[in-house]
Amino acid sequence: MRVNGTDYRTVWMEGHTVFYIDQNRLPFDFIINKATSYEACCVAIREMQIRGAGAIGAMAGFAMAVACMESVRTASPDLIRIARREIESTRPTARNLFYAAEQVAEAGGRSPEEAVKAAFRVADRDAADSQQIGEYGNSLIADGCRILTHCNAGWLAFVDFGTALSPIYRAHQAGKKVFVYAGETRPRSQGARLTAWELFQEGIPHVIIPDHAGASLMAQGKVDLVLTGADRIAANGDTANKIGTLEKAIVAREYGIPFYIAAPTSTFDLACASGEEIEIEERSEEEVLFQEGPDEAGVLRRIRVASPGSHALNPAFDVTPAKYITGFITERGIIEASESAIGKLLAQEPP
Ligand code: MRU
Fold first, then answer.
1. Do 186 and 79 lie in a common domain?
2. For the chain, first and last CA: distance in Å?
3. Of 197, 200, 194, which Cα lies nearest the Cα of 229?
4. N or C: which end of the chain has fewer CB atoms below 10 A?
């Protein structure tokens, strides 16, 4: 996507160096960071400098490729296994991270050149899938559509284009009038900080809403479609996504509003029979107790926003049962949220 007149991907590799947009500094500063070791890539994922299912998948792939090159350079064959374990321990919920680490580690067993090629394939596929999701998802968006989204499943969360926001970009480019309610998504505010920034850059009309305003807007008939991304989708269609998604899905069902999940097939995990088997990341209580933002001089400050002495619980994701999901928008088409439709989709040869 274009930022200040230049086309960017969220993460890319040149030689042995991985470059990525630092999402912890957005929307206040647009900064490109560099990681020159797989360990530095792991820190970037853990600290959420890079985040979102597809973006951390691509970062994991590049990190594996760096480790494979390092393993040959230092004659340490064990490094591929050690690095894979460390990369996979950075964040547990998003399927794409494991998918990418596996693809690149396998290729790295053949040669570092193969690992690098595999990492680029993962990243390129992520961008292409996201773009295709935009094409299919656009067919669900009528002129004048008012869409509620949660968290950030835009291009920042992937390599490019995004998933939930990709159909919105496509509809906007096609000249349809769209309006987006961006749920703020506490505690890290990916909606208020990142989705809002993306939509603003693209000139798409939107407002940021408090997380708990969604139900009331839906009850008032102000939402036509709910569109979110996914971090992992089980074989039966149960879907893990940012905490708060479940609530939106239940309310959408109550008011008869279509609730779609946009995700590439690389997010589906047939090894998880149902949502009960998806590991939900629990993050530090600090994210709930403190908030960060720039002061009047533009210096980033961290302030406590909760009563001193209390602790916080911070599950990063929830699982929406398939019964609340109208359908999945994938790069291979739109399907219903059922085990048989998912099985058929994944059995298809990619085009
Ligand atoms: O914790 P994050 O910001 O990495 O969360 C992942 C997500 O971006 C969301 O759950 C999103 O809606 C899924 S699609 C990337």
1. no
2. 24
3. 194
4. C
Q: Are residues 171 and 224 in the same domain?
A: yes
Q: What atom of ligand 1 comes closest to residue 164's alpha carbon?
A: 14
19 with 163, same domain: the answer is: no
Q: What is the pLDDT of residue 351?
A: 65
Report the nearest-CA residue for atom 8 of ligand 1. Answer: 52
Residue 231 appears among annotated catalytic residues: yes
Instruction: Count up the domains in the chain and report the number.
Output: 3
Residue 219 in contact with residue 160, Cβ under 8 Å? no
Q: Is the pTM of this model over 0.90?
A: yes
Residues contacting residue 328 through CB under 8 Å, at least 6 positions apart: 230, 233, 237, 260, 261, 262, 263, 334, 335, 336, 337, 342
Range of the domain at 186: 141-283+313-347
Residues 180 and 82 in one domain: no
Q: Catalytic: which of 129, 224, 231, 238?
A: 231
Residues 124, 111 share a domain: yes
Pair 81, 221 in one domain:
no
The answer to whether residue 136 is domain-embedded is: no
Atom of ligand 1 nearest to the CA of 263: 14
Band of pLDDT at residue 350, cut at 50, 70 and 90: confident
| Residues 175-210: tens digit of each pLDDT | 999 999 999 999 999 999 999 999 999 999 999 999
Residue 57 Cβ < 6 Å to ligand 1:
no
Q: Is residue 135 part of a domain?
A: no
Please, what is the angle between helix 79-88 and helix 53-73, to 10°?
160
- The mean pLDDT of the chain is 97
